[in-house]
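**Tokenised fold:**
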Amino acid sequence: LSETLLFIAARADHVARLIEPALGRGEWVVSDRFSDSTYVYQGVARGLGVEKVRRLHEAALGTFAPDLTIILDLDPVEGLKRAGGRAQGNENRFERFDADFHQKLRAAFHDIARAEPKRCVVIDGGRAPEMVAANVWRAVQERLKP
């Protein structure tokens, strides 16, 4: 619970100080994680419960949500292998959890994508980086019509 409250408080501060002012100026904002990550990591995989996380998020941010969420999908074993290939000390504590934990994460992100297909796009993160980038840009162009 404490971890979740800290993440949500930091997100609320980030939205108030950076995201909302930028959106007010007509700028695009790209974030590498938002509320879905908290639903999945703390709500599902860490067992706090998605409904509790949703209520906390709503209390802090109301209905504020991304217009588009891109979920980069990758087999957890491959993802952990990639993370392990980075320089020592650069992994985060979630990367230290086992493959079963990461499989729960993957399934929960897929559940969100199925539940909210107008907002979420799942992209195969196992492809070559330039193909992933092209697929991300295509999703942005199709969904946000820049």
